[in-house]
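> run fold ATP-binding protein
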Amino acid sequence: MAVSIDLGHRDNGQPALLDLEELLATRLLVQGNSGCGKSHLLRRLLERSAPFVQQAVIDPEGDFVSLAERYGHLVIDAAEQTEAGLALAAERVRQHRVSVVLNLEGVEIEGQLRRAAAFLDGLFAADRPFWTPLLVVVDEAQLFAPAGGVDVAEEARRASLGAMTDLMCRGRKRGLAGVIATQRLAKLAKNVAAEASNFLMGRTFLDIDMARAADLLGMEKRQAEMFRDLERGRFMALGPALARRPLAVRVGAVETESRGAGPGLMPLPETPVEEARALILAAAPAEAPRLRRPPAAPPPDILAQLAAARPAAPSALPPPTAEEAAARRRAQLAILRSILEDPGAAFRPAQALLQDFQLRCRIEMLPGRPLDLPAFRRLLMTVLAGVGEALEARPEWPEALALAAALPEDRQGAYLLLARAALEAAPCPSDLAIARVLGSVSRGRGRSALEFLEKQGAIACRPDAAGRRVVTLIGPGWETAPGDPDAAAA
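> ok
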């Protein structure tokens, strides 16, 4: 179904239309100085698209809470929720397809970054059956994806920037369409801004911002001066969802009222000086409490409201049976082995492999919680060491795992490879084979791993009569067959 959103009109009087389906696939960036009409533009877009697509608004100033009365958005007050609660609420937002406004007003800047990151991560982490289209609007995006350092904890900055990057770079396949608005392009992280294909550029005065806006619209540098002359509510539009060439758009009227509008001028009261002195400098009553605001009311249970929107699945699932756990492990091993069929996969960082692994588990609809990084590393070492089901079923293998667990994590894979060779009476692995288990192509890395294990008293190495290497595992006394240390890896 093709849906066109009427943003207003062009200079020639024709309506300025935005293709909603194209926007969901290509994302939108809105830029302009304070007072140019960015929030008015976002409100027009949200109002006109509300009947057609689910919406989630990251609102740092509480400007968009008025959408709730007219269009039924659920307002989540971030000041009354924990980060874990917001992440869970975001997952349920996608499950039940409820449009929401995350109101960050009243939260200090670092808290805004942490709570917005938790909410966006929850949207991003929804299971595949809930990857339905969702328009994610982020006002004042330079707060959540800053181009440079900001005066907040580094952990909060990284979390927020990572969540915004995921939204703009990887959100499309999960149904997330980012619409971000910023006062200055120079303050917005480039890898976030670069993923937008549609642009609405409003009034701006700084040379660096005008130059970047002109560059994004494919205009010549001498044309950049025009951005200083744009009136309030007038934007230059370009993109597959808007227009193939830059054109001027004047945003139309909105139906809901913004709380962020500046106050108008009004005359001052005619108060005599002595009366003003008495009013301003009067002593405070002794019994008056020194509170800036009354105590807050108990927070509403947002999660209960979301759960009431539609019937939810049971919160607690019964533990898997032994047969289910074994089947899940076999499926995980099969997925990881298919990933490692690529010759270069063994040398990729574990974090990158984990992302690929989790994506394939979702595609296969594998039940249960996803593996964390330490558990994935153990599974990865098992596969790289070539351990099969027959070996895992042998009574000696738990002892090998216990001995490996006492070693540093970056040496456990080498020990498991030697243990497998000893229990299967296979030749001692070459230096290159040991290095491959450790994610390297350096024979020296394999030799240093053997030397480390020998110094730790875990193994003993000796040559046979032909100069081939034999490794004995100290403790259990298992011994590999002679092997060529300089042989190529299998």
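The CA atoms of residues 354 and 376 lie 7 Å apart.
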